[in-house]
From TrEMBL:
The gene is hpt. Residues 11-158 form the Phosphoribosyltransferase domain. This is Hypoxanthine phosphoribosyltransferase. InterPro entries: HGPRT, Hxn_phspho_trans, PRTase_dom. Purine salvage pathway enzyme that catalyzes the transfer of the ribosyl-5-phosphate group from 5-phospho-alpha-D-ribose 1-diphosphate (PRPP) to the N9 position of the 6-oxopurines hypoxanthine and guanine to form the corresponding ribonucleotides IMP (inosine 5'-monophosphate) and GMP (guanosine 5'-monophosphate), with the release of PPi. It comes from Intestinibacter bartlettii. Keywords: Cytoplasm, Glycosyltransferase, Magnesium, Metal-binding, Nucleotide-binding, Purine salvage, Transferase.
Length: 174
């Protein structure tokens, strides 16, 4: 049976780190435009907290993508389930993710978005699991580097459950 066995990051730890990331982004984009793009659904909670820590005139948009899951197609592309509402040509774009695991979702997504001619394209992720990386992608802002455990909470699901937990927990088969 799958159960949440431990807390990896508490609500307080997440809150403090999200505030730091927001301030760093605020400093880096001072005096510039910024379009924050949250990747649904996992990043929804993080992006909502993050933008409230960026005291700039930010615009916000969302994308929903699905990666082709099986190994044979792993180098493929992302299927766009919901595209951006705005044209990103000439804009500073910050992609916000909850977790980078294999890196395939973002590696394919950044190829797609780069082709649209943004002024800059940066990546912010709350969690980074480098041990599982299959595609090398440069990440500009990382909340926490974590070990290879299956985690849930703060927007991240297991079978669509646990997204509403305010902390990040480890799920194990017990
Ligand atoms: O680096 P990768 O191995 O590609 O994995 C990371 C992706 O997986 C999760 O999304 P998921 O497809 O589970 O959708 P969700 O955000 O709607 O839960 C997560 O939100 C990332 O988008
Ligand atoms: O650890 C994880 N938990 C939930 N969804 C995920 N998608 C990639 N890694 C994870």
């Amino acid at each position: 049976m799958f159960k949440i066995t431990k807390t990896m990051l508490t609500e307080e730890e997440i809150k403090a780190r999200v505030a730091e990331l927001g301030k760093q982004i605020e400093k880096d984009f001072e005096g510039q435009d910024l379009l924050v793009v949250g990747i649904l659904k996992g990043a929804s909670v993080f992006v909502a907290d993050l933008i409230r820590n960026i005291n700039l005139d930010v615009n916000m948009d969302f994308m929903s993508v699905s990666s082709y899951g099986n190994a044979m197609e792993s180098s493929g592309s992302v299927k766009i389930l919901k595209d951006l509402d705005v044209d990103i040509k000439g804009k500073n774009v910050l992609i916000v993710e909850d977790i980078i695991d294999s890196g395939l979702t973002l590696s394919n997504l950044t190829k797609e978005l780069s082709a649209r001619g943004p002024k800059s394209l940066k990546i912010c992720t709350l969690l980074d699991k480098p041990e599982r990386r299959k595609a090398d992608i440069p990440v500009d802002y990382v909340g926490f580097v974590i070990e290879d455990k299956f985690i849930v909470g703060y927007g991240i699901d297991y079978a669509e459950k646990y997204r509403n937990l305010p902390y990040i927990g480890i799920v194990e088969d017990v």
